[in-house]
Amino acid sequence: MRQEQEIKGFTIFELLVVIAIIGIISAVGYPNFSNWNKEREVRVGTENIFSLMNNIVAQTKRGNYAYVQVEVSFPSNQLTFVSKGMKKDTMGKELNKPAKSRKLNCDSQVPWDNVLINKYEPEIISINFNENGAVCFSQDGTYYKIEGKITKNINLFIENRKLGKKDYIIICHQKDAIKNICPAQKSLTKDQPAYLIEWSRFGTLSKFKWDGNAWRRV
Q1: Which of 129, 147, 26, 31 is nearest to 84 (CA)?
Q2: Between the CA of residue 161 and those of 14, 68, 207, what are the distances in Å?
Q3: What is the pLDDT of residues 131-166, one digit of tens each?
């Protein structure tokens, strides 16, 4: 005799209840995930910029280049970081020229031996300015130069000291940027992840993270 088995499935009501529960859990969890993902993307972008700068400064310490540049530009509205280098012989020739014809001003006229050592084009982050700028380092800090929009930075206070106007860059998420520029410090909130890279004329780099009230070293 064939024994009949009672087969049960979900009712439409039960399915709707499960879907509703999943929707509630997703709605509660999504903001946290979104904030976490934004912070991760800004942190990764900051690490890449920091690495590019640290690498080119390190090459002056090793003697690979006597004079180097980190250029920030916006070709086709794409934020771009490029590092460049000048060898010792080339720099020596420039220094032997009369001061008026010497090209060591960190601008587009500098005769670089290598115009593309490293390049980084972040797609999801912004910085605190949207016009071209550059910073140049030499081995002993003598020929430290700043050009372009970086010179328009405002004074900031970090660790109870005033930060040099020209010696930092702020990195934020494009979703938080206003006209592709990171919000001013007084407008930053805790859920708007932001990092700051500071440098000295000798190429010493430091990283800071905005905690909603102040910049904390990381």
Answers
A1: 147
A2: 62, 28, 15
A3: 999 999 999 999 999 999 888 888 888 888 887 778
